[in-house]
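Design job #97: recover the sequence.
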């Protein structure tokens, strides 16, 4: 469960994908799409943060950089998991067309 208590977290989803415990191809594709969307958001936040001037006097150093990176990762993961109309959903809808219909058994 994620730290906010909304259900499975990104780490759980990633470990389930890696272990193969998600068997349904539609669920696997949806999980992978959400993870990709989270990674996209994280990179977007990172690039946006690089545009902010670094004040030498008030800069927090490596500790601040680490905190901001972790915060960006968490915000990106939450945004991707809660999004129903984002990049991950669009990617899922497009790629799901190549999968067998939901509920169909492979023979």
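Job complete. Output follows.
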């Amino acid at each position: 469960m994620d730290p906010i208590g909304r259900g499975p977290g990104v780490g759980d989803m990633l470990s389930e994908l890696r272990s193969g415990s998600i068997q349904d191809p539609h669920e696997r594709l949806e999980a992978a799409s959400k993870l990709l969307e989270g990674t996209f958001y994280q990179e977007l936040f990172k690039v946006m943060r690089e545009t902010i001037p670094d004040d030498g006097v008030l800069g927090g150093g490596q500790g601040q950089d680490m905190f901001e990176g972790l915060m960006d990762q968490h915000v990106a993961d939450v945004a991707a998991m809660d999004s129903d109309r984002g990049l991950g959903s669009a990617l899922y809808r497009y790629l799901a067309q190549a999968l067998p219909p939901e509920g169909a058994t492979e023979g």
